Amino acid sequence: MKGGGKFRKVLITGGAGFIGSNLAQRLLAEPETQVRIFDNLSRQGVAHNLTWLQTIAGHNRLEIMEGDVRDADAVKKAVRNVSDIYHLAAQVAVTTSVTDPYTDFQVNALGTFNVLEAARQSGRKPFMLFTSTNKVYGSLDSVGVVVDGMRYRAEDSTFRGVNESEKLDFHSPYGCSKGTADQYVRDYGRIYDLPTVVFRMSCIAGPRQFGNEDQGWVAHFLYHVLSGKPITIYGNGFQVRDILHVHDLVNAMIAVRENIELTHSEIYNLGGGMQRAISIIEMLHAIETETGKSLQLRYSAVRPGDQPLYISDTSKLEHDTGWQASRSLTQTLEAIHAFWRDNRDNITAQYERPLPTAEILEEEVA
Ligand SMILES: NC(=O)c1ccc[n+]([C@@H]2O[C@H](COP(=O)([O-])OP(=O)(O)OC[C@H]3O[C@@H](n4cnc5c(N)ncnc54)[C@H](O)[C@@H]3O)[C@@H](O)[C@H]2O)c1
In this structure, what CATH number is given to the domain that contains residue 168? Predict the structure, then answer.
């Protein structure tokens, strides 16, 4: 890619992934933005996202660097000349973090440290957004729940979601590695005056997600129902999650960048919030309606540590940037369904293994 001075150069680590490719699409719609994707393509299916981005990019405004965030020298090269960094590359699954905590730590903690150091040493003070997780809040035992129809709801009728003042309580190796990175990113903002922002995200869904048994449960459920495969529910399925359309997440990413004088070194909880909270069983029935296909459900014992309810309080982000979620849960399902119709062969290639739902519930609280 030629380095024309009129262009704003943006780095997206993990840019081939679900969120990264949606963000890249949005940035490429800005005629004066060049996007550099740095990704090791370790997530199954994401090469397909790159092929798609290449078809829409045009005019050499998309640069793809295949590399690993654990490689400090490669990261330094990726950060060269950029004004903005969206650091999304990660080991994303709680399940994998439990079986291989060393790799999880290396990718999430050391990988993020490498990006921060490259940004600091560049001397350019690039904007940097880090995608952390609600797993940093642990099991949230303080939020009491009662059963309400087919879902849990908070016992406290004034509950409006979990806000950023919730105490940190890293849970699982994934929670620990992301939480470590989260704190480093925040502190590089304070101590080195890097314009950093941390998003603690709950459940993001939408097109271009190659959801699998390790991460991406909404897409994974939808694809399983469309494929006529059975789904196992662990517990009663009343567990509640708040779901945000990736379109709204990308809007939030742009909003914190545009309001950096206020958002500098800040942390924001982000998810669908109270209006987009839904139980697992309610989501499955919504998928049944969306697809017209019957559910084949199996039940098994609830897994230890599975949070009955997680809902983000996004009011701090709304206050600081004016951001608002705009897409409904129905629109989110429709968008994933449309992605399935257009990319069925690519998606089904990833779905040959059966679905252990409990793993999804466990880590998608992240
Ligand atoms: N999707 C969600 O609901 C959710 C929730 C909370 C946090 N997050 C965070 O958002 C970010 C993006 O998640 P996503 O859903 O798009 O996942 P994804 O798996 O689709 O994207 C992650 C990308 O990172 C790449 N990657 C993995 N290890 C790498 C490494 N060592 N070096 C370079 N690239 C590497 C993968 O190939 C993939 O393209 C992650 O940091 C994740 O932890 C996501």
Answer: 3.40.50.720
